[in-house]
Amino acid sequence: MLKIKKSEFYKSFIDYKKIPEHNKIELAFVGRSNVGKSSLINDVCGRKIAMTSSTPGKTQLINFFFINNSFYFVDLPGYGYSKSSKDVRKKWPKMIEDYLVYRKQLKTIIFLLDIRRIPNEHDIFLKEWFEKIEGLKVIYILTKSDKLSKSDINNQIKKISAHLNINLSDMICYSVPKKTGKAEFLKKLEKIIST
Ligand SMILES: Nc1nc2c(ncn2[C@@H]2O[C@H](COP(=O)(O)OP(=O)(O)O)[C@@H](O)[C@H]2O)c(=O)[nH]1
Ligand SMILES: [Mg+2]
Q1: Residue 86 forms part of a structural domain
Q2: pLDDT-derived band of residue 16, with 50, 70 and 90 as boundaries?
């Protein structure tokens, strides 16, 4: 299991081109606004390093955190709050697309989905898109599992796995207040970091 001994805020970027080159790997957190990305980062780091908010769609920056002096967590802006366009790509800020498409250091996507929601066309589009990026691993996290009963959790896991066509074993149920999922997630991270 990965131990996060040190976590520090590095920098925020608005422009993809301004992100410096380096030889460390990056793990990016992706998900709809308000799904719990920043809370997850804070939870695994054991301190409030990322800004959380109950107002959806606020963060429009790419935030970098340097972990254990060895790799970066990247908190990406959320998607899904622009109702102006039917084209899912247009709801997705250009800078995130650039980052995901061009960033050589990006090794893993941590894809967060609210356990209470059935994935929509946008989530499915992203899942299929990530699969096409060579060498990219995806970890699926179902967030806010404390909001459901045990039986509802099981039903939702099955529905989400069917909608997105992913194995049950590739998804981690997470709850910050109930402290579930953290050990499993850190075990997966350990594997990724050490290979
Ligand atoms: N009940 C519950 N609330 C959560 C959990 N994780 C995040 N939240 C809440 O969801 C809201 C959005 O969280 P945030 O981390 O800012 O989402 P982000 O927009 O994806 O970064 C905040 O009010 C959090 O407190 C969780 O595991 N359980
Ligand atoms: Mg956030």
Answers
A1: yes
A2: confident
Q: Which domain holds residue 65?
A: 7-194
102: left (phi over 0), alpha (psi -120 to 50) or beta: alpha
Determine which residue's CA is closest to atom 5 belonging to ligand 1. 144
CA distance 79 to 92: 6
What domain count does the chain have?
1
In angstroms, the CA 148 to CA 137 distance is: 28
Distance 169 CA to ligand 1 centre (A): 23
- What pLDDT score does 52 carry? 75
Has residue 57 been placed in a domain?
A: yes
Q: How far apart are the CA of 39 and the centre of ligand 2, in A?
A: 7
Q: Which ligand is nearest to the CA of 36?
A: 1
Q: Is the pTM of this model over 0.90?
A: yes
CATH number of the domain within which 142 lies: 3.40.50.300
